[in-house]
Amino acid sequence: MAKAITSREENYSEWYLDIVKKANLAANSAVRGCMVIKPNGFAIWERMQRQLDDMFKETGHVNAYFPLFIPKSFLSREAEHVEGFAKECAVVTHHRLMNDPNGGGVVVDPSAKLEEELIVRPTSETIIWHTFRDWITSYRDLPLLINQWANVVRWELRTRLFLRTSEFLWQEGHTAHATAEEALEEALKIQEVYATFAEEYMAMPVLRGVKTANERFAGAIDTYTIEALMQDGKALQAGTSHNLGQNFAKAFDVKFSNAENQEEYVWASSWGVSTRLVGGLIMTHSDDEGLVLPPKMAPVQVVIVPIPKPSEELNTKAKELMQELKARGIRVTYDDDDKQRPGFKFAENELKGIPIRLGLGKRDLDKGTIEVARRDEKTKESQPLDGIVDHVANLLEEIQQNLFDRAVRFREENSTHVDTFEEFQAAIDRDIPGFVYAHWDGTTETELKIKELTKATIRCIPNDRVEETGSCILSGKPSAGKVVFAKAY
RNA sequence: CGGGGCAUAGCGCAGUCCGGUUAGCGUGCCUGCUUUGGGAGCAGGAGGCCCCAGGUUCGAAUCCUGGUGCCCCGACCA
């Protein structure tokens, strides 16, 4: 068991890191807080990208690319925005290096100081709105629906692979609209796109909700979020979509002429999901044997293992089978390494999260069967080779659904409703705190006080919450409905 | 930004307190033989600026001074 990973029970944090490292998803790099995404990890991100990109295109968005560097002055145009990001920006101050006159290698050339420093984008609203000013003059230019796939940098003090790194990959959508209603609709539409993606493709159930004033994006009117529950009972903000109102249009003076030839400021939205989703995917489904991937997100869905080792006979059959599976659109590989034994390969393929393993041996060929093992439930059974492609195709769907159902069940089992602060405290203090629904008086003051006392934050006010009168668990003041608290990543 | 830890073979580590031949163990890697339906066994082999710089000493992975880097835990944030 050379590659055994720490169990979740023993140390959840170590378990997560073990999976990331031992499934070869990512590694720490020479740069603090920045990760190297390895081929296995990047393949998952690529699947996310491809699917999301299709969905964005489907909703009328087009891709573009804006610069990595942003003039420092741009960031300060929107007051709340700069306050939100100023503390975590990387700043470029010089543009040239020179040989150290003292022989210490290269040093920054002091004569190459920039007139205006550049910041490395922590998000691109400012540079994009500066550009949109040139793109928009008339209501006929609207709506403008732009997305970009990019890297961003936020100088994080505490990082974890995928979940929070100083540099990360993401997509950021930026849209401009003629009316407030349209901008709001756009923000909500994207929230639903994100939720659909999370649930149908990642098999990760999410709560759809709106952030409190305290938790919203710096510069937004409202932030819509999807929140997932991880296996340790902590919430993960998996995607956000912002209604920016006219805040950035005003800051960057972006106006359009409406049909009556009157000038108005443009209405905006922005939204993003990042490589953090890979972390969420890992923590939603994986177990103590390693990574578990839902079939739709698995770079490899089926692996065929020759037993006990490759032979001409087995290779021929396996390749034939691969062709049939590929023809059905199934991503399949053949593990024809003749050095490792089957047991090793089983463990290795489980660690990597491949949803289905097909074990093919001499006995199978004689009997016309094949061994089908599913990663999610760790069961295996012998199946007739005849009709195996249909069986595998159906099983992939079943696994996808099973993982989602399992995650929904976990979330339900770990969601509680409380009415008093004592109940609240007890719920949050459990080993798996989960989502805790409670009344809140709507003030930032109370929210912060609760956070100080319990470390729990308001994840969202659910879109589908039932309106009911109640009293705040802390202040006792009236509340119009329960909000969702949790400890969060 | 505080607190702690670590830096020695691809990876994981011991050795450092108490300086001393050729720096060691596990794993991985290479070769060969035997094995082979759940992480194989034996034999042989390759692989090291012991984080960097200075100092002490006949002699430094080890002691002293000064750096650098990364990780983990908290506070802040996607």
UniProtKB/TrEMBL annotation:
Principal localisation: cytoplasm
This enzyme's EC code(s): 6.1.1.15
GO cellular component: aminoacyl-tRNA synthetase multienzyme complex; cytoplasm
Database matches in Gene3D superfamilies: Anticodon-binding domain, Bira Bifunctional Protein, Domain 2, C-terminal domain of ProRS
UniProt keywords, alphabetically: Aminoacyl-tRNA synthetase, ATP-binding, Cytoplasm, Ligase, Nucleotide-binding, Protein biosynthesis
Keyword rRNA-binding in record: no
Single annotated GO MF: ATP binding
The UniProt record lists the keyword Lipid biosynthesis: no
Domain Aminoacyl-transfer RNA synthetases class-II family profile: 30-294
Subcellular location: Cytoplasm
Catalytic activity from the UniProt record: tRNA(Pro) + L-proline + ATP = L-prolyl-tRNA(Pro) + AMP + diphosphate
HAMAP family on file: Pro_tRNA_synth_type3
PANTHER family cross-referenced by the UniProt entry: BIFUNCTIONAL GLUTAMATE_PROLINE--TRNA LIGASE (PTHR43382:SF2), PROLYL-TRNA SYNTHETASE (PTHR43382)
Subunit and partners: Homodimer.
Family: Belongs to the class-II aminoacyl-tRNA synthetase family. ProS type 3 subfamily.
Cited function: Catalyzes the attachment of proline to tRNA(Pro) in a two-step reaction: proline is first activated by ATP to form Pro-AMP and then transferred to the acceptor end of tRNA(Pro).
Protein name: Proline--tRNA ligase
Native organism: Neolewinella aquimaris
Highest classification ranks of the organism: Bacteria, Pseudomonadati, Bacteroidota, Saprospiria, Saprospirales
